UniProtKB/TrEMBL annotation, chains A, B:
InterPro entries associated with the record: 6-hairpin_glycosidase_sf, 6hp_glycosidase-like_sf, Bac_rhamnosid6H, Glyco_hydro_78_N
Native species: Mollisia scopiformis
Domain Glycosyl hydrolase family 78 alpha-rhamnosidase N-terminal, first and last residues per copy: 30-171
BP term (GO), one: carbohydrate metabolic process
Gene Ontology molecular-function annotations: catalytic activity
Protein's recorded name: Alpha-L-rhamnosidase
Domain named Alpha-L-rhamnosidase six-hairpin glycosidase: residues: 185-510
């Protein structure tokens, strides 16, 4: 893929730089020494059992081919350090260790190499280190995202064994460890657990940018940013970090004014060559969400021209009737990783959604809403995607029925809520309909349900999907989840998956914002029922 | 092996610490990009061919599974750094590299793992590193000893390749790079080459102590120290470093006043549990050599008590007739790694040699020579090792004939030179006689030959043995050499051998000191012959 030229907007880059957070640190210690034993009832077919208490660890000695797994209790992002002590006649050689940082049990129960992944195996979370002059402290210079640490002693010598002492992680996040987040309205334990895991996910992704995944690929993606920012506004309320991320994108317009799908902070700010039409279009809504949540209209005004630029490429896909045509350019339309997805209907809904949000943003900052006519035309063209017999939206020449097409049509508000809700429900009941693969797409289905009066359906989906991850033992929500296949991966090898992934952190947003009224009414009804007793 | 208690002599340790050198640095760059191709005529069955000039290197790009070998032209000890550049659409993943530091071709032409070595495989000279945020500089924190650097690109990503730029080594040694060493008397090219390789070996082993090998095991051994010091006095003349090493041993007497065979500088000064009777005995001669070479009698006086202590354990092996009996204690008598060596005769010669040197040391510093009687008795007992029929010294109940027994008997000066010379020559001609394995033992054979009037024999042995290493391509002399077997190793795997090893650096000493008179006479004769023309 050839990259379009980017002209860096220095003023915006400087604004972003000035907003770069000092990361907050917490020191985290392992909680126990474990091993995994087979358990066919568990999602990962194994369960952890404690082999030693953590108090025992400093006195345990390990020689060649020994290994140990430490459980840090939950997912953390940070810098590992430990002391290598010795049980020695002589320390007459270096020690060679392999450290493997596991987000899930498979990372530490299986060999990572050779890998079947189609993407870079440099992401695999293992390191081999040679340590001279024991006893000594070891400070790993790289940042890792993990819950489990496996240490394999590749060799010591015949004259000494090693001990692992003062093992700790300097965990980092842009979010203050002590940040206070309001309690959920609902006291439902399972929903509170989803909220807690969402927050942990968001916290671990919130670094000097909102990363997509702190293990892989540690980058700011526009689509992920939008969902992280929404979740952030109703939890941690770190407006500065959201603002910084907006300026980072605004600093990197391509020559046609479109925005890159993602960007690199290091070694210097630069746009990735990836371009995604839907992500480009979602920049406007992301600015709108920010302005609405923060009240910072000044930033929205400053980014207004960028917003208009970001709509150009998406709009170029509209035919004269205002119908989105994915074939208009070869540019990537994403929506989800589900295989064979036809994006015409979903993109139509998404672009219409974005036009409406940008119109709202215009009003908010005193600009003329630029897309009133287009919204009208696109709304009119929506009917051409609707199959009255099947009562769902269909997409492309094969008239594909997918959950995500329904979701974005619903979110666009092009048709009455009850029609949208019926369409989503119909697709979800149709075993032949294309299901989403990523939490990113599941989010849009869940939000669409709730926005159309299907709050109970939304909750059921959340309990099934994010709840499924929670039941599988997730400490943070994953990049990809298939309840039937614990090895599901978009990359050919689940060891390359990210198990703390930004775009899956939205249950907090769904529970706190999208379902807010629903819970209020529910709570009110409950109070009334109680009063009547 | 249980370690005897060591009581650290703080005063001596402080003296040693004060003598710790600041290492001198040289920046060394690779000279060419090579690969090894089969060559059945070469010792290592391969030869290097240049695939790219070093000027081409910065522009070469390497992706997954590519590799490169850089040739630094000769052996160096130091710290590697390089810049990882990119040839990229996007640098969207870390890069994972395996670096292998080769002293000999096999290190970089073969897989090091799995290893068949019986000693710690943590010594194997390879590292796997993961590098974030390219382009970037990489500074390897550990010290390596090598000539060849193999870089294997384990992975980049599909979107970028890496380039290696500004590759360099900060080579370190206690010896000044610009140190002037007198020319040899002889202009023989081959002998001058041996002298040059000896100096390179000594330079690379001379760090904050005289290490046995800068690759493995980076420690100060007493027996190696003696030979390094002797070579040092006639080349670099770094008396401070020799003095420091003497004080380090003197700082670590064991409870019976014996000295450890080796010691660790880091992480703090401590004795290894290794004890070798012959190394203990050789401390006195090492002090004597130092005092004689440096003129620093003050140090010799201060170490006198330590010298006397170091003789106790060796002397405890003498029977009432003054005959050394290896069975008297279970302590390790080394002399050489040759398999099945009976040490009785060799140790008898060695201890007698040491007693005489200590008597000389006493005279030098105004003390009473302590071993006059013992020398007399031991000299008398020497005949019991001599087999008049075979005209060689035999050792132990099996009446073993070995080169090294003859060598130490000769060096002891117990019998007339011509008898000693005959004994060595006889053993060397006897195919059943046990040959040495290590350059350490070959040195003592070579020196013994020269000291007994067999200078030409000595030179022949040097040309055969050290010359054999030179012909095999040695940049520095090796821990172990067998002209018939390029994989010979005391450890079961030659990848664990050290190919820059202190105890093989003595050709310079042999050429400059032991053979000095011989060359002078030769030069004189040559001049006379020329004059007569």
């Amino acid at each position: 893929m050839a990259s379009k030229k980017t002209n860096i907007n220095t003023k915006f880059a400087e604004k972003a730089e000035a907003l770069k957070p000092e990361l907050h640190e917490r020191i985290v210690h392992p909680l126990s020494v474990i091993e995994f034993v087979p358990d066919q009832t568990a999602f990962f077919k194994c369960k952890a059992i404690e082999t030693h208490t953590i108090q025992d660890l400093p006195s345990l000695s390990f020689g060649k081919d020994d290994q140990i797994i430490l459980d840090f209790g939950s997912h953390h992002v940070g810098y590992l350090s430990f002391h290598v002590g010795v049980d020695a006649v002589d320390v007459d050689a270096p020690t060679r260790l392999r450290l493997t940082f596991g987000e899930i049990p498979y990372d530490v129960t299986e060999d990572l190499h050779p890998s079947k992944a189609g993407i870079s195996t440099s992401w695999l979370p293992d390191e081999i280190i040679n340590v001279d002059w024991l006893p000594t402290d070891v400070k790993m210079p790289r940042r890792y995202a993990f819950r489990y640490l496996k240490i394999e002693v590749l060799d010591t010598s015949q004259r000494y064994k090693v001990r692992f002492q003062n093992v700790k992680v300097r965990a980092v996040s842009a979010i203050l460890p002590a940040v206070k987040v309001e309690a959920l309205i609902t006291t439902d334990k399972k929903l509170n657990e989803l909220d807690r895991i969402s927050q942990a996910t968001l916290r671990d992704c919130a670094q000097t940018v909102f990363e997509d995944g702190p293990r892989r690929d540690r980058r700011l993606w526009l689509g992920d940013l939008r969902l992280q920012a929404l979740t952030n506004y109703c939890t941690f309320k770190d407006f500065r970090l959201a603002k910084r991320c907006l300026y980072l994108f605004a600093a990197l317009p391509r020559e046609d004014e479109s925005l890159p799908a993602c960007l690199f902070e290091k070694p210097k700010l630069s746009a990735a060559s990836d371009y995604i039409v839907d992500y480009d279009a979602l920049f406007g809504p992301t600015v709108y969400d920010y302005a609405l949540a923060s009240g910072d209209l000044e930033t929205a005004r400053e980014l207004w021209t960028t917003v208009l630029g970001s709509m150009k490429m998406p709009m170029s896909h509209l035919d004269k009737n205002g119908k989105f045509d994915s074939r208009a350019t070869e540019a990537w339309k994403f929506l989800d990783w589900s295989e064979g997805l036809d994006t015409n209907a979903g993109m139509h809904g998404l672009v219409l959604y974005c036009c409406k949000k940008v119109n709202k943003l215009a009003k908010l900052i005193g600009e003329e809403p630029p897309y009133l006519d287009i919204v009208e035309r696109m709304t009119g063209a929506t009917s051409s995607f609707y199959n009255k017999t099947l009562r769902v939206f269909v997409s492309g020449p094969e008239r594909q029925v997918s959950w995500i097409s329904q979701a974005w049509m619903a979110l666009s508000g092009a048709v009455d809520s009850h029609i949208s809700l019926e369409a989503i429900r119909t697709a979800m009941k149709d075993s032949k309909a294309l299901k989403p693969l990523t939490p990113y797409a599941y989010h849009h289905v869940a939000e669409a349900l709730a926005r159309c009066g299907g709050e109970a359906d939304c909750l059921k989906l959340m309990r099934d999907y994010w709840g499924g991850m929670a039941r599988a033992g997730a400490d943070t929500f994953w990049e990809c989840f298939d309840a039937e296949d614990s090895r599901r991966s978009p990359y050919g090898d689940c060891h390359n998956n990210s198990y703390c992934h930004a775009w899956s952190c939205t249950p907090s947003y769904l529970l706190r914002v999208v379902l807010n009224e629903y819970f209020k009414v529910e709570a009110h009804n409950w109070t009334r029922l109680t009063d009547q007793k």
